[in-house]
Automatic annotation (TrEMBL):
Source domain of life: Bacteria
Protein name: Cell wall-active antibiotics response LiaF-like C-terminal domain-containing protein
Domain Cell wall-active antibiotics response LiaF-like C-terminal, chain residue ranges per copy: 105-160
Lineage of producing organism: Bacteria, Pseudomonadati, Pseudomonadota, Gammaproteobacteria, Alteromonadales
Protein species of origin: Pseudidiomarina atlantica
């Protein structure tokens, strides 16, 4: 017997409906305007049936090829052996990690009179929970995350500042970053750089291109 709709995790239902929406958009069954309008409504929906109603008239379902494309885009594979622990040392210098990079399960940052910038918007996570241990003296650490990454800060600030412009538990969180350690006369800032909606739209446009259709921006 199938599980009742209202008893299923709503985020699972939401993702399945978004998959169906993207598939139909990528085959030019609906327009760009209709795709983006329905996507916005799905992201805001709080009821299971509302989500299903938004794709009830769409004929195509997600298939194996779609699932493989989605997996490579949103959850690239990474082995624990190659991403257990890493360290960034910044002394009187600046360091950054951005673009496609592999996030280890634990990242240690030693920042003395320097700056460290971490951009997770295109990163691949080796685990669903990542620890960033900060040891900062007169330094600055900037962390930019996409909308589907939760950030929990447990940093001890001594004559230092800490700003968080990202919700600790976003609605569509896939990963969690726990920031620990100490900042002495420095700063640790967290912000959202890339929304989940932007990632879905970019993926949908890449699917259109795969079928030889014009990419939308």
């Amino acid at each position: 017997m199938a599980v009742k709709l209202e008893d299923r995790p709503i985020e699972q239902v939401r993702e399945e409906c978004i998959d169906k929406l993207i598939v139909n958009y990528s085959h030019a069954i609906i327009s760009q305007a209709a795709f983006e309008r329905r996507l916005d409504e799905m992201m805001a929906a709080t009821e299971h049936q509302v989500l299903l109603d938004l794709v009830a008239d769409l004929p195509k379902e997600a298939d194996k090829q779609y699932a493989e494309d989605k997996q490579s885009t949103f959850a690239p594979s990474a082995t624990s052996a190659e991403a257990t622990e890493d360290k960034i040392v910044s002394i009187l210098s600046s360091n950054s990690r951005k673009g496609p990079w592999l996030v280890p399960k634990k990242l240690i940052i030693i920042d003395v009179l320097g700056s460290v910038e971490l951009d997770f918007s295109q990163a691949t996570f080796a685990d669903t929970q990542v620890e960033i241990e900060v040891k900062s003296f007169l330094g600055s650490v900037s962390i930019a995350v996409p909308e589907d990454v939760a950030v929990v800060s447990r940093v001890t600030n001594i004559l230092a500042s800490s700003e968080e412009h990202a919700p600790p538990q976003p609605q569509h969180a896939r990963y969690t970053i726990v920031v620990t350690g100490m900042s002495l006369i420095g700063s640790v800032d967290v912000s959202v750089k890339r929304s989940m909606r932007e990632r879905w739209v970019e993926f949908a446009n890449s699917m259109r291109e795969a079928f030889g259709l014009e990419r939308r921006t």
